[in-house]
Structure formats: C-alpha cells, structure tokens
Amino acid sequence: xxxxxxxxxxxxxxxxxxxxxxxxxxxxxxxxxxxxxxxxxxxxxxxxxxxxxxxxxxxxxxxxxxxxxxxxxxxxxxxxxxxxxxxxxxxxxxxxxxxxxxxxxxxxxxxxxxxxxxxxxxxxxxxxxxxxxxxxxxxxxxxxxxxxxxxxxxxxxxxxxxxxxxxxxxxxxxxxxxxxxxxxxxxxxxxxxxxxxxxxxxxxxxxxxxxxxxxxxxxxxxxxxxxxxxxxxxxxxxxxxxxxxxxxxxxxxxxxxxxxxxxxxxxxxxxxxxxxxxxxxxxxxxxxxxxxxxxxxxxxxxxxxxxxxxxxxxxxxxxxxxxxxxxxxxxxxxxxxxxxxxxxxxxxxxxxxxxxxxxxxxxxxxxxxxxxxxxxxxxxxxxxxxxxxxxxxxxxxxxxxxxxxxxxxxxxxxxxxxxxxxxxxxxxxxxxxxxxxxxxxxxxxxxxxxxxxxxxxxxxxxxxxxxxxxxxxxxxxxxxxxxxxxxxxxxxxxxxxxxxxxxxxxxxxxxxxxxxxxxxxxxxxxxxxxxxxxxxxxxxxxxxxxxxxxxxxxxxxxxxxxxxxxxxxxxxxxxxxxxxxxxxxxxxxxxxxxxxxxxxxxxxxxxxxxxxxxxxxxxxxxxxxxxxxxxxxxxx
Length: 636
Description:
The chain has 636 residues and is of the alpha/beta class. The chain has 3 domains: 2-171, no CATH class; 190-202 and 234-307 and 342-601, Cytosolic phospholipase A2 catalytic domain (3-Layer(aba) Sandwich), CATH 3.40.1090; 607-636. 35% of the residues lie in helices and 9% in strands. It has 21 helices and 12 strands. Strands 4, 5, 6, 7, 8, 9, 10, 11 and 12 form a 9-stranded mixed sheet that branches. The N and C termini lie far apart (80 Å). The model is unreliable at 5-119 and 213-219 (pLDDT under 50).
C-alpha cells in the first residue's frame, strides 16, 4: 500500500511539473489573475448555477472549456490516472456527478446544484447591490448539501455557501473607456478639469516668481527637484496607484504620462498598494521618464532566479521535500524557507543599490507630496496606512520594510511583516518597528501582508483622509473579469500560510470565502460608476470625484510574475498611452497616446543590454544615447 501511494505521489508531481507546467502554474498565483485556467482547475460546468433574475447571464459561448489542450505547453486533457494522483495529494477536489436530489436535501429548501443546468452563467454584475445579493446567495443557489461533511477549516464558520462555486460563476469587469475617448469629446471628467486648472495656476506662479513660500526648495539637491504649490483652492487631489507584481509596469507607464503632461505638481498626496508603492516613490522623486520604469523592464527582467525562482514553488505548497534541489532548504530552513518571490531584490538590491531612489529628494518632498503605503492588517482585518508623518519609517531601509509588507503576496513572498508599536524609554511618543517573522505573538504586534486583501485600489483610504478628487491608476485592463477563479494552488498556499505558518484563522476564513476578491470587484464597480460621472462640477464635493484609468479591453494582460523584457516594456507603453488619452486637456489629442508613447519610449530602448549600462546616477537609456552619440562623433 505504501509503495502504491508513493507511486501515486510521484506520478502527480510528474504530471504537475512536466513540460514546463511548474512555470505555468506559478503564473496562476495572482489573486486577480485566476481567469486563466489550467487542466487542474475544477471544470466550470460542475459549479455553474441557474440565472438569478437580478443578474444578467452572459453568452454561453463565452464560457471556457472544462480543460485545456495545448501542444505548445505540453498540457494534455485530464486522464483518470492524473485525476487520481492529484486527488491523492489533495490537489484536486473530486466532483462526482450524482443523481439529482430533492430540494429538501439542502438546509434552506432550495434546489441542489445537480438540479441546475451546467451551462448557466457566468453572471455579469454591474452594481454594488447586485454584488451584495450575489455574494450573500439570497437565492440559495450555492448551498452545500445538508448532510455533507465540513472540513476542519469550515467548522465554526457558520455558513453553508460553496464560495468556490459562487466565485466561478461571477463576472465583474471594468468599464471606463469613455474617459478620454476621441469618440466622446464632450465627456470631460471633473478631475481632468481640476488638475488642468491647477496646472495653469502653477505655470503662472513659475513664470512670475520663484518665491520660496510657494516652492519646495531642497537643500543639497543636485537635481533641483521641487514642487510648486498651486494656490489654495480647498481641494485635495490624491493619486492612487495599483501594483500587481510585474503588472505594475502598466501603472509605471501611467505615472510617466502624468509627468509628461506636466501634472505632477497638481497632486497633493500619493497612495500606493503593493508594487504601486515603489512606482509612487519614483514618481515623487521625479526620476522619470526612464529611470523609474527601468526598474521594471531592465532590472527585474534580467535578475534571473534571484528575483523569481520557480523551483521554490513546491516549497510554497508544502511539498519541498519532493524536489532534491530543495532538500537543504527544507532541512535547514524548516520554518522560513527561501520564497518564490524575493522582495529584497526589488526593495534593497534594486531600489537602494542598482537604481537607487533619490532619498534626499524623497524625504523633503514628504512635506508637500507624501507617499502613503498601504498594507493589510491580518489581526485587525483592515487596511493599514503607513507614512513618514505617522512615524512608520524614518529612512529608506525602514520604508523598504513597509513596502515589503505592502507587496507580500501570501505564501510566496516570505514571512509576514510584523508592525510592533511601543513607547521608548524616557519618551511619550509611539514608535514603530518592522520585522519579518511568522507566528509572532503580542498585543502590540500587527502582522502585515499584501494590500490586495483589504485595499488593492487605495482610493478608499485617500477619501477617508480627506481627498476630494482621486486619480486611480489600475493595472488590469477594462473588459476582463477581475474576480478571478479559484485555483487549487491558491487554496493550498493560503491554507498553509495562514493556518499552519501563522495560525491566523480569521484571515484564512476571509481568504477562503474570497472576500478579498469581493472587495476588489466592489472597488471596480464603484470606480465604473464614478468614472462615468461627467456632469458634476469639480467644485461639487458633496461626494468625492473618482477618476479611474485602465487600459482598453482586449489589451494583453501582463501577469504578476512576467519576466519577459519586451512584454514588460510594452506594458509600460500601454499604460502611458491610456493615461495620456485620459488626461490630455486638448480633446483633439485624444487617441494619440500610442503615438506619443512610442516617442517617449522608442523601440531603441530594447536595443541596449541592461547588464552593460549599469549607471546608478542616470538612466540606462540616457547612457546608451550618449554612447551612440560619442560613436557617431568618433566616426566623423
């Protein structure tokens, strides 16, 4: 029997990681990118439900096939042997089609899923009320069987909703393309009107005077960076930047467009979630248009296994002992193995050494354009805001720790970051200390992880802290389902990280019910509505003005763990083009964003080797251009 089980286990591993599937599976880790399906995801047909009258069911042709058959990736249709092997390792839930049951077999007297046509759904939800009704399952369409055995994780959860099935039939999409559309020149968002009014006032101030009372002068500032303050107008404009791992290259392009249009000084405060914190930092220091984005398409794409190491994926799901390459890691780093995603390469090696953030400028700019770093409090179950004013960090190393908390994708980016508050001896001021370690106890300790759990789009905190107008940069395209679908790998990683590693049952239940995806879906719906509100005056602040910017439907979506230089570079271009069209004041310039993006980020950028041009004081592209000019001069 033992030998039989061992063969099943080895067979499962072979199925999982043959023909490059390990890399493919790893790309599915993004909690907002599970729309891509692998052959190991439970078929949609076994979880769909009948249409609910308040929701709209999309065309059946849009429903993806139950399995993937690809000769290029080596993934073949599921076989019975593979299914048994995966079930043995708990990598796949076994769905057995049973004879239809009677309604009284469910606790609330509704029909069971077997009585419902498989081809129903997915359901396109467009309002917050619809989303709430759907997630609360008011029709009882996703109820588990009355006699079904609950897992240990579900005991005490006081619900009988099958959240995996519920999520599988849900669809929420961004719809904001009317903003900046050349086909709707009369539609000008109130936020666009305000920032350009501020820009004109700032230009008048710059041309008329250079008084210190309106300009932030920075001592010992060789780059001469400052923010010219607009006249007091009673408004507070915030920039909210989404990250999403390597998908943040899109929002990196967007902030570059804001800089290109001369709107950087119109922003009062910057909020960043996940990788959006790094993007926001380079925006504040004005290390644009190339230096900041080069972090994405130069530094991270040439890091190899140092930044993203796919062989550690087995360790993330608790099976590291099955890979001989990980034996040493399993034995000597039992509780704190090396992560799949090494954030220290981004936040220390890159941001502090290879592409150093101009800390002197950043520190001074915090007085007039502060960066607010978002993270998720795993005990408090809420978004945590960190900044220099609150004392969350005092130097770049401490800020990097805060950013690590914001970027810490559960289970694949290392141990949780612990924010400890204390009062120092002979002092009354509260101080903070950040450290990475799982399962740290203490009343004054707050374990932190990725902002995606409670505030992936950080406009709510911006509004809560007084912002009247918010530009919200999204890294996912409009027109794609933002809820994602449940991956078995996500389940394994989430359970291991929150329960076994950290004993955070409440946080685990939050993730098990996919409430983080519900929150993201709700944010997108709110932004859809606000983004299409063109009639209000920007002076009307009875409710905040929210302006989302997302690339158009059909745009290629960069994955969280993308490492292709050209793919990342094109993502930067797409983000720039969309933000340019959305924010340019001259309506006749709308639609020219792609052309301008190619001028700012020419094809020539892909011609140089990032490993050759490694200056820490100027962008690699600037150094490359100087070399070309020098070569031309020498040849003449």
